[in-house]
Amino acid sequence: MTDPEPRPAVAVVVFPGSNDDRDAAWALRALGADARLVWHGEERLPPETGAVVLPGGFSYGDYLRCGAIARFSPVMPAVAAFAAEGGPVLGICNGFQILCEAGLLPGVLRPNASLAFVCRDVTVRVERAEAPFTARCKRRQRLVIPVKHGEGCWYAPRDLVDELERAGRIVLRYDRGDNPNGSTADVAGVLGEGGNVMGLMPHPEHAVDPLLGSGDGALILASLVDAARDRLAVAV
Amino acid sequence: MRATILVRPKEGILDPQGDAVQESLRHLGFSVGAARIGRVVDLELDAGDPGAARAEVERMCEQLLANPLIERYEIELSER
User: Fold this and answer.
1) What CATH number is associated with residue B59?
2) Residue A205 catalytic?
3) Distance from CA of A8 to the nearest CA of B (A)
4) Å from B54 to nearest chain A CA?
5) What is the pTM of this model?
């Protein structure tokens, strides 16, 4: 008998200074993925990779600007190539910062407007419920997911924000009055140009079980696992 | 040859660090208007030709040292 739900491989890239890599892998495994930790020095992703996660942390000590150095890691050309082929890539917190610096996502993450490190649950609103990252959510659904960052203030110039809005590339917004960092237009998560790369500041991997305060993050990660499974089913 | 690169937040970009320093200076009794905080990068270069050196440092700024979305930069070259 074949496994009705095969476990798709999801690569979780480990940079020097990543610290949410193991939590991300744990959450992805709990949600049915075969999570593989991939050291940033690797020049290739595992050939059967169905999705990539760049986890949270403080890669390279946040030197120069958050994510500015990690984008030169040997693994990044492979991640960019995977994204160019349409593979789903999710950047969480520091992963979001890295994807912005690498030019795979629009905008840039700046120090929080309050200058304070913020560590608390926030409520985000799903602006778009589509594959590969939010297919398990409903549009306008509110998700409670924790943030923990000092530099999560996403910034983009007004005309770029308008363009993203028109293209439906703003996926998550902090609920009214619950923006923890002063991000432009309350943006909490955005898509790249092809719609298959996403970055978000909240940490879905820390909200996959109601015992931990919320299970809402599982909707995002399980959507990604679905997308990885679909991608591999097509490839086979 | 030595290059000094001044990287500054662009006009209109919120600079909470600068705001906090402005506030602190006022607490000390100094009368200051806006304070903005950037960063300085000093580089030693092998290049002998100032024109070529400047062009190279500009590429460094565009690719790594500054994020053109939020920062502008100035390059000063001097003999070692």
Assistant:
1) 3.30.1280.10
2) yes
3) 35
4) 21
5) 0.92
